[in-house]
Design a protein that fits this description.
Number of helices: 0
Order of helices and strands: EEEEEEEEEEE
Helix content: under 10%
Strand content: over 45%
Largest sheet: 7 strands, mixed
Low-confidence stretches: none
Radius of gyration: 13 Å
């Protein structure tokens, strides 16, 4: 079955860095765009970043541009989120997701366009 397993979250001071990983299995990873989302308790899920199935293009939420970077290694079935210059407001649960479309030609910002999700990893940034 499809599995997405995030890792790499934790506690970091403001201005620090973390790298999140999302290991995929149970589907042909290199055929699907991947996204990262985050969600605070009681709030809507928020788009963070997305990357094409080929890794050739990426897209970011304005709130994270210049600080976060998404990448993928199709040989390892893994997508990454490098997080730099972290701020206390980045403190939430981060989840990866697989797009529902095979080799989709566009990067979706909507969580409804993603049909497989990981369990999430907590990132906590102290001030």
């Amino acid at each position: 079955q499809v599995q997405l397993v995030e890792s790499g979250g934790g506690l970091v001071q403001a201005g620090g860095s973390l790298r999140l990983s999302c290991a995929a299995s149970g589907f042909t990873f290199n055929n699907y765009n991947m996204g990262w989302f985050r969600q605070a308790p009681g709030k809507e899920r928020e788009f963070v970043a997305a990357i094409y199935w080929s890794g050739g293009n990426t897209y970011y939420a304005d709130s994270v541009k210049g600080r976060l970077s998404v990448s993928r290694d199709n040989a390892k079935n893994t997508v990454y989120l490098q997080m730099n210059s972290l701020k206390p407001e980045d403190t939430v649960v981060y989840s990866c997701a697989a797009d529902r479309g095979l080799r989709s030609s566009y990067l979706s910002l909507s969580s409804y366009e993603y049909n497989y999700w990981g369990q999430g990893t907590q990132v906590t940034v102290s001030s």
